[in-house]
Each structure stands twice: as structure tokens, then as C-alpha cells.
Write a structure and sequence with these properties.
The protein is of the alpha/beta class and about 475 residues long. Helix content is about 40%, strand content about 15%. It starts with a strand and ends in a 12-residue tail after the last helix.
């Protein structure tokens, strides 16, 4: 169990639960149960948390206890609540569901779902060739214990060479191989951030980074991104005023907005961070995926003279998410300290996976070039479908990465995500990318599915968006205040 939510707290999360579009003709208990399921689906209500007693929630919502009792009963019947007499009721999810990479819970046998919650590509055809070659290389490692806390030397050298090719001289001693980029971030936070430490992040930002920071009980401040990216004076001012221990930034095709930080701002951010004693954690997950011939600025680490920049990256976005290989680039002493921290977590990354990564990186030019062509086609298909079916949505065309950040025609992101699930489209609503449940006017749309699937998904989304207005039209007769 992760804790308990009080009646007034749950009431705030539920909001206008009885008047959500598409719920008006439902009984109150069904609308209440459906809204709780929606909160679980978009991650705003944690799993394993104890819900308030029926009487307490009824008082907080100013409804009858009978309605709450019926709602809790329906949640138990659908597998979203477990109750024990005298102990309370805890949130859960049905036994035939699993956690998807978005944090949403998805049926194991749901193969017809068009998943736009995951911003990652399917594996490239070269993966099988790399895997076979890795198996042939494996015997030379079998005589040892297999523990390489910083990674096998071939992979560390390959990653270091990639940094050098981008203009940032790097040695293998400055690279630590991890089990994915998220693992890299977790290890950096364990080393560099004490529980309760202060961190500056962009808003919106990557949801799993927020989850990692929450795990460290970090005190988070945010820099809100504008329609065209970072506001230099505001970002630098935030660093100087809050003087955070860490700042987590995604300068290459920021997730979810797709913005690219210009070189001049990168230099100023590093200088400001050094002046106030802030370490910069730079997430380079999308650095390999510029589109339309976009020229990348130098890496942020180019401007670092005082070991203030720690870069993290990995294979998930340009290659395959199922290959859990990531890395940290830092000073050699920092890498050794990270290795010491790692021993208490997972010892080392799998040798075979690292060998696969070595072979993929050896063929990086061809693989990544194909990925860029594929992504450009899929992005344009998604943009075309949005322009045709949802012309009132505003989207800035990203120059790289794998996601669009769409501004909707109303604050309906979470409601739209719940409705789209019913027609076989999974979405990650805007509030998942922030701290406080705002950004209901925004939606992240990755263009990682085949073009035909993206067009089909937009068609389904457009249909349910229309239905939200049609079924909810009568509610506008009752004035409501949205603060």
C-alpha cells in the first residue's frame, strides 16, 4: 500500500464527476465509478492507495452513502478495488491487465488497440542480424563472472566514439552502460540528489522522469515551455532564483513538445548552472532523430568546464525499446561513484544485450538514416490526418524526435483519452506530463506507428471528440466555474 487518500482529496481529484461528457445519462454511482477508473488510467490516482470510507466520501461529495456504496461495489466487480471488512478498500487493476510503458494498464490480449501512449518504434530489421552476431561473440565472456558494473569495454568505446563524432571528446572511462535511459536517470538521482532535494524541470516534461523524482521525494520547480520553446530569461532566472541541486532538461526534440534548444542558450544554461552550483542532467534520448535535414547544435556537454553536465541516453528511441541499453556520460570519477551506487541496485547490464548494442551501433548510420525517413513519412501522415479531421487543433511541426504536442480545441484531454480507449485508441493525456493535473488542453501524439494506423487512429479520435460535444451539449445550460 502506498498510502491513503482522504475524502476531500479524492473529491478534488474527481472534480465534476457527475457532469463529465458521455456520463450524463448514467446513474450517479456508475459515473462515480467510471471517473475513479479514469483517474487510475491516467495515473492521477495511484495503485495500492486506500480510498476513504464510504461515509467520508459521501460527505465530501455531498451525495448519499448509497451512491458511494454502489460505486465501490461496481469497482470491486470490475477489478479496480479490493476491500477487506474492517480494513478498508484499496485501488488495484484487473488481474488480466498489465502495466504499459506509458503507466496505463492494458489488457494482455488487446492486440487491436492502436497505442498512441507509447513513443517508441518497433524493432528495425537489422536487430536479428545483430543478435546472431552477438551470440557468436558471447563465448569470450563466458569464462568470467559476467559482472561489468560500468559496461563491457566494446560498448563503452562505441558510445564514447559517438560523442566524439558529435564534437564532444569522450573516453570509455567517462561512459557507464545502464539498463535503459530511465535506469540511467535513477542512478544519477541516487548519486546526486539527497531525498527532498530541489530539482528544476521543464513543463511539460517526460512523465517517467517525474516519477523518478517523486521516488526521491524531490522538491520540484518548473520552467514552463512557450509555444516556440524555452524562454531564455525565464529559464536562467529560475536557475538563479531557486538554485536547485539538479536541473533535468531535454534539449534535443524535447519530450513531449519536440522543441530543439539553440546553441546559444545551451552555453548560457551551463554557465548559469556553474554559477549557482546546479548539476545539469541532460536527457539525449532523441538526439539521433533530427528530421528534414535539421542541423543539431553542439551537445550541452561541449560547454561544460566544471563537470556540471551529466548526459544520459540510450537505444530505446532510435533502435528498440525492448533492448534495455542506456548510458551515462560524466567525468571518470563520477562514473566510478555511479558504479558504486549501482552495486546496490542491479550489479550490471546483461552482457548479451550489450553485445547486440555494439553491433547495432556499428551499423548506426544505415539504421538511423532509415529510421529518419520512416519517421518523416509517419509524421507527415499524422499531420495530414489532423489537418483534415481535427482542423481546430494547433500543432507545431517538430524538426525531429517522435512526438507532436497538440493544443486541443478545449480542456478535454483526459475525457478524450477515456473515450478513445472505448474505440481502440490509447492516448497519453496532457496532465500526465505535468505536476498538478493541468494541461487539459494538450495531448501528446507520437508518430511511431505505421502511417495507415495513424490515419485510422485520428479518424477514431475525431469521432469521439465529436461525440463528447454532442452527448455533453446539455451540460452547458448549467453554469460551471473552472478555476
Amino acid at each position: 500500500m502506498t498510502g491513503q487518500v482522504r475524502g476531500v482529496q479524492l473529491a478534488r481529484l474527481l472534480g465534476h464527476w457527475h457532469a463529465l461528457p458521455g456520463r450524463r445519462r448514467s446513474p450517479d454511482y456508475a459515473a462515480l465509478a467510471g471517473t475513479v477508473r479514469g483517474l487510475l488510467a491516467d495515473g492521477r490516482l495511484p495503485l495500492g492507495v486506500r480510498l476513504p470510507a464510504e461515509r467520508e466520501l459521501a460527505e465530501a461529495l455531498r451525495i448519499s452513502r448509497t451512491t458511494v456504496t454502489a460505486a465501490y461495489r461496481q469497482l470491486r466487480e470490475t477489478g479496480h478495488l479490493a476491500s477487506r471488512r474492517g480494513a478498508g478498500s484499496w485501488t488495484m487493476l484487473p488481474g488480466n491487465h498489465r502495466v504499459a510503458s506509458t503507466g496505463l494498464w492494458t489488457p494482455l490480449d488487446d492486440r487491436e488497440m492502436l497505442d498512441l501512449g507509447v513513443a517508441a518504434l518497433a524493432a528495425p530489421p537489422q536487430l536479428l542480424t545483430a543478435a546472431r552476431a552477438a551470440v557468436e561473440d558471447l563465448p569470450r565472456y563466458l569464462g568470467g563472472a559476467g559482472y561489468h558494473p560500468t559496461g563491457i569495454i566494446e560498448l563503452r568505446e562505441a558510445v564514447a566514439d559517438a560523442y566524439a563524432a558529435r564534437g564532444l571528446p569522450t573516453s570509455a572511462d567517462q561512459i557507464m552502460v545502464t539498463s535503459g535511459t530511465q535506469h540511467a536517470l535513477d542512478l544519477v538521482l541516487r548519486l546526486a540528489l539527497a531525498p527532498g532535494g530541489s530539482v528544476l524541470v521543464e513543463s511539460p516534461t517526460y512523465p517517467n522522469a517525474l516519477a523518478a523524482l517523486a521516488g526521491r521525494r524531490a522538491r520540484i520547480t518548473t520552467h514552463g515551455l512557450a509555444a516556440d520553446g524555452w524562454e531564455p530569461d525565464l529559464l536562467l532566472g529560475s536557475l538563479r532564483q531557486t538554485r536547485p541541486k539538479l536541473a533535468y532538461l531535454i534539449p534535443e526534440f524535447q519530450n513531449p513538445t519536440g522543441h530543439l534548444m539553440p546553441a546559444a542558450l545551451r552555453e548560457r544554461v551551463v554557465a548559469a548552472a556553474h554559477a549557482v552550483g546546479t548539476d545539469l542532467v541532460i536527457d539525449e534520448s532523441f538526439v539521433d532523430l533530427p528530421l528534414d535535414g535539421t542541423e543539431l547544435p553542439p551537445p550541452v556537454g561541449v560547454y561544460d568546464r566544471h563537470s556540471r553536465v551529466i548526459s544520459i541516453g540510450g537505444m530505446s528511441k532510435p533502435y528498440w525499446g525492448g533492448l534495455r541499453i542506456g548510458w551515462v556520460r560524466a567525468s571518470a570519477p563520477q562514473v566510478q561513484r555511479l558504479a558504486a551506487v549501482r552495486v546496490g541496485v542491479d550489479m550490471a547490464s546483461p552482457v548479451l544485450d550489450q553485445l547486440v548494442a555494439v553491433h547495432l551501433l556499428a551499423d548506426a548510420d544505415a539504421i538511423v538514416a532509415e529510421r529518419r525517413v520512416q519517421l518523416a513519412v509517419q509524421r507527415d501522415a499524422l499531420l495530414g490526418a489532423l489537418a483534415q479531421r481535427l482542423p481546430d487543433w494547433r500543432v507545431t511541426v517538430p524538426r525531429g524526435g517522435v512526438t507532436l504536442w497538440a493544443e486541443l480545441d478545449g480542456p478535454v484531454s483526459s475525457a478524450l483519452a477515456r473515450a478513445a480507449e472505448e474505440v481502440g485508441v490509447r492516448l497519453a493525456p496532457g496532465p500526465r506530463f505535468g505536476l498538478d493535473g493541468t494541461m487539459e488542453r494538450f495531448l501528446r501524439l507520437p508518430f511511431t506507428l505505421p502511417a495507415a494506423d495513424l490515419v485510422e487512429a485520428v479518424g477514431r479520435i475525431a469521432a469521439v471528440r465529436y461525440d463528447l460535444d454532442r452527448t455533453g451539449r446539455q451540460r452547458w445550460r448549467e453554469p460551471a466555474v473552472i478555476a
